[in-house]
Prior knowledge:
- By secondary structure, the protein is mainly α.
- Helix content is 36%, strand content 0%.
Amino acid sequence: MPQSIYSLPSDYTEDNPFTKREITFFAFIYTISVILLICMYEYLMPVINNPTYPHYNRVPSYEIHKTPK
């Protein structure tokens, strides 16, 4: 069995179809979209800036009470 069956042709690599400007534009739009999604999530369901994060409905009291005997 000849080994040339599994080798790629010499002209297999194609030129990059995107210009530097298009790649920069895509990266900028992608970055802005991710930042806006994070901001929207934090606005609708705050986690980072929520001091009562684990307790949305009722904030527990951490005061120490003596138990009656």
